[in-house]
Amino acid sequence: MNESTAVESRLDKLDKDDRRPKLTVGALLLALATVPLVGAAVPQQDLTGRFLLLATTRTGTMQR
Fold first, then answer.
1. What is the span of the domain harbouring residue 14?
2. Where are the transmembrane segments (predicted)?
3. Domain membership flag for residue 22
């Protein structure tokens, strides 16, 4: 193994070692960026309870 091959081998290993943390950090940032987006979805509200309470208050009986 001559000197240039050893240097190339070492540089290839360093490139691989440098790539792994970058991919890990990128995946972590992507996962953290999706959390607010999932939480930003507006849930559907069930307004039937409010409507029945309002109808009962106005009429004195619960009518359906």
1. 1-41
2. 23-42
3. yes
